[in-house]
Please model this.
Amino acid sequence: MHSIGWIIGIVVAALAAGLTVVVRTRWLQSHTLAKCVVLSVGLHLLLAVACGLLAGFMPASWGHDEEGRMTMVMVVASDPEAVIHHVEPAAPAAEAAEPVAAATPDTPRLAQEPPAEPVSGDGVPADVVPLLNAAVEAAAADDTVATDDTPEHPLPNAYANRTPARRTAAAIARGGSEATEQAVRRALEWLAANQAEDGRWETVRHGGGRGQVGAQRNQATGVGSDHGVTGLALLAFLGAGSTHTTGPHADCVAKGIRFLVDRQRADGSLAGEAEFFATLYCHGMAGIALAESAAMTGDASLRGPLERAVGFTLAMQHPVTGGWRYAAGDKGDTSQLGWQVMLLAAAAQAGLDAGPDSGIDRGRQRARTFLQSVSSGQAGGLAAYRTGERPTMPMTAEALFCRLVLGATAADPSVREAVAVIAGSPPTAARPNAYAWYYATLASFHVGGPQWDAWNRRMQPAVMSLQRQDTGPLRGSWDPDPVWGGHGGRVYATAMAALTLEVYYRYVPLSGESPQVAKNR
Model:
């Protein structure tokens, strides 16, 4: 034991001396990367030598002979909540250190599932998702995909066209076709085939995590955006009618929703391990998926997680400007606005209080204030990324969609001005931009009229021509575009394209008009 103490003391002294020399001589001020590598290798070699010597003196028995009888002590707890069942963690290493809640006998659990929500005082885990458990375990039991398309819960009117009985009719009536439906089916098949075992879709595995933001040219972004692209993938399934209880992809949706719910942070964030620039994007995308799942199924167990997610969104909104950006207190940008406004709208569809002076209502009022601050043009229909900057088509399209969600009508002068800007930048396969096409398609659809017909005629061939048609593992997916595709990768690109082609039935038009009425207006 004395020898071990000397060894440890020598190693610690050597490390301390080395670090002191490095700091005092300012050795790292030039060729920083190369020297950091050398320093890291040296430190690890010292640690390896120390561990090797330590392991030699201290085997697994810590100096005790492994001969003779072994005694096992069993502790019986009278309180059932004191018993902790061992569960192999499926969460990332950063989350594995969090306390694991006690399991109760009446809570169905899958092998190797992530830690559950904290246990309440009556011994029942908080925010249990029984319908999710049942759907996932049923699929795991017989290795089949759910095929029952009959909703168990009446859909909110906004999502009414997602049912099998209305989806095809809505697509045909509003400009879709069998070709667009085939493209959506292939996209969903690719997404289903590339879901990870724990329910997420992995950003880096599918070409994401390579984006750049502003001056951060030496740091790739999107690496930790699994929760965001998982939210987008789930929205693609939900938009086509599959929930975590019904539909041909119920098992995928169930695993994905539970992945998000089980990893929700105490403050309500659904961003997971997203880096600073992607945190609120990922939270918004995942939050919308959670809200739509709750609205489409009526699953009461999702209400608590959804309320916490909405609470996080409202806490991150600037109290004066009404905007969202990267951190609480930021004045805001239009790109973030769209996802948070959509989350508030979906939460209202799920039954959260959106009445006068509710949290959602106040959030909407503040969002209107922010929209005014980034608007320009003769009628205020153009929009910039941030206050004082020049307007762009993508931000004008996103702001237009937000205005419609927040109560504007197709007859408003600002809406007509924005529509004209969108019409002047029709989509072309030579310059793909999934983000701009997504919001421009949503906004044009909800406004309706001749402009929607014109946009739709250009959008369909541009989007569908970029879908992979080969017979390999990429069939049905979209390559990441050069604008934002580097952040979210192939999952982002495929989900956004599918959502764009689902526009005909994903939402009932906010204008409330039939295509023929809108065309003749």
